[in-house]
Design brief:
The complex is a heterodimer of chains A (287) and B (231). Chain A is of the alpha+beta class and 287 residues long. In chain A, 72% of the residues lie in helices and 8% in strands. The radius of gyration of chain A is 31 Å and the shape is elongated. In chain B, strand 7, helix 6 and strand 8 form a beta-alpha-beta unit.
């Protein structure tokens, strides 16, 4: 273990500029991956807040008896994906209107009869706030004879869906591209390191070191560079988050997500080293 | 302990580096491999330490048959051998002691055993006083002694020396050669490839001469008849 650490740190000490360069490149690659992650995180949170407002409203025909409504409420509540069902009477609808639209106060005062219909408002549970679930519940409620009209903002639910899909695809594509770039960069630094140490590797082989033994310092090297790059990337992301947060409120990674980014860096470093060292060790000749 | 049986080796389709080579080297024996540059001396050594495999024929080294050797078994074979080259192949950024210890460290020998073993071989090659020196601070002869110490530290059965005196002046050559003979005197077989005929003639040792990849002379046949050469 001691020898492994010594051999690994040796590559850092022998080529400090190269090592620093590779850590910096990994850091920038992971910074972009992190940025995509941050955008996705904040977008998801915003979408989540918007989604909470996704509901289906069924306007009821005048004079629908309360007993009928009560039965319907129980039926709707039993539907899968329904979080809450609220019955809004005509009076409550008017009170809401008075509260929400104060500029029409005079109009409300002059009313002889209440023109607003009673309604059933259905809030959907998380995971069922997509356009398909909304449309399914709306269609089901249309089956009640006492339902006059249904509103559920189909278009913006669909838009939300699309936005979320686009964000996911863009995130995956950009993140994937940078992950591949990281692998190529780490692979190149490992290759240079192998060539730099080819004399040592040849001697190791001559005196009977196993391939696994020769490979280990390079793997650890990639792992450490990936971890350091990941930590630096979190710092860069935090700086970016700080700048954005001054303009509007944003969310940063929690400890688990930050660790995940470092772990991702380590996995990239290890994978790149393993791929590169396997290919290039074979080229180091004995004599 | 080392047996070549009708060994052919070609690196290119149109030429043979080794042709129908058969010989046997016994435990504790000293043998010269002689011949001009390109005669096949290094090829014989590379076949022994499994850096190359024969194109046809069989090479046996201390119980290993190299044609059947799996890649993962090569390190085990090499741990039974010590190898020395003309250009020393020392690590310039490590001291004499570290260069020798390196051979033990990479084979997983315990740290507590390494230091005394290293000092023992450095004393044997006469360099105990220069344990802390770097290769660039040593003469050619001293650097070759370090390389020999590194080859010896694993207690090999055979020491393979590929032109070990090729880069040395006459005095250093004599010193290194005497060291190899002393090592042989302690029971380690030594195979020394050299084109220095004056060195070969100065002692009475087994000599195998190669010419264009073929063995043209083996003193063991003259001394003891054909029985020593494998059929």
């Amino acid at each position: 273990m001691r020898l492994l650490l010594r051999e690994t740190t040796l590559s850092f000490r022998r080529a400090p500029v190269l090592s620093l360069l590779s850590i910096t490149t990994i850091a920038f690659a992971l910074f972009v991956v992190g940025l995509v992650g941050l955008v996705a995180l904040n977008l998801r949170q915003t979408l989540g807040q918007l989604e909470e407002r996704v509901e289906v409203v069924a306007y009821l025909a005048r004079g629908t008896p309360i007993e009928v409504v009560t039965v319907a409420l129980a039926d709707v509540q039993a539907l899968p994906g329904v979080e809450a069902v609220v019955y809004v009477t005509q009076e409550e609808a008017l009170q809401r209107a008075r509260r929400d639209m104060e500029e029409f106060q005079d109009v409300y005062d002059d009313l002889v009869t209440n023109p607003l219909p009673a309604s059933i408002e259905v809030r959907l549970s998380p995971g069922h706030r997509d356009s398909e679930s909304v449309a399914r519940i709306a269609e089901w409620m249309r089956g009640f004879r006492f339902v006059d009209d249904i509103q559920f903002g189909r278009e913006w639910v669909e838009k939300l869906d699309r936005l979320r899909n686009i964000a996911t695809v863009v995130g995956l594509v950009i993140g994937g591209a940078f992950a591949v770039a990281s692998i190529i960069i780490i692979g190149t630094t490992v290759r240079m390191s192998v060539l730099h140490r080819s004399r040592e590797i040849a001697i190791m082989r001559l005196v009977g070191a196993t391939d696994g033994f020769i490979r280990r310092p390079f793997l650890l090297d990639g792992l450490i560079k990936g971890a350091l790059g990941g930590i630096a990337a979190i710092g860069l992301n935090y700086a970016a988050y700080g700048a954005v947060n001054q303009m509007f409120s944003a969310t940063f990674f929690n400890a688990q997500q930050a660790l995940l980014l470092v772990a991702f860096g380590m996995a990239l470093g290890l994978l790149a080293s393993a791929l590169s060292v396997g290919r290039h060790l074979g080229r180091v000749q004995q004599s | 302990m080392i047996r070549f049986k009708k060994v052919f080796k070609s690196f290119r389709a149109d030429s043979l580096a080794l042709k129908d080579a058969s010989f046997h080297i016994a435990k504790g024996e000293f043998a010269f491999l002689t011949g001009h540059s390109g005669a096949g001396k290094s090829t014989v050594l590379r076949l022994i330490y499994a850096d190359q495999l024969p194109t046809s024929g069989e090479v046996r080294v201390s119980g290993f048959v190299t044609t059947k050797l799996k890649r993962r078994e090569v390190p085990r074979l090499r741990r039974r051998l010590g190898i020395v080259f003309q250009d020393f192949r020392l690590l310039e950024d490590r001291t004499v002691e570290e260069n020798v210890a390196f051979a033990l460290e990479v084979t997983g020998v315990r740290r507590s055993i390494i230091a005394p073993k290293v000092m023992r071989v450095l004393t044997q090659v006469g360099l105990a006083a220069k344990a802390g020196a770097y290769p660039r601070e040593l003469s050619g002869g001293e650097q070759q002694r370090v390389a020999i110490a590194r080859a010896l530290v694993n207690d090999p059965l055979v020491l393979l020396a590929d032109e070990p005196t090729g880069n040395l002046d006459e005095r250093a050559t004599r010193g290194v050669f005497q060291l190899l003979r002393d090592i042989n005197g302690n029971g380690t077989a030594v195979i020394m490839a050299t084109h220095d005929l004056s060195l070969v003639r100065s002692v009475s040792q087994r000599t195998i001469e190669l010419q264009d990849g073929a063995i043209v002379y083996d003193s063991a046949i003259d001394d003891r008849g054909a029985g020593d050469v494998a059929p």
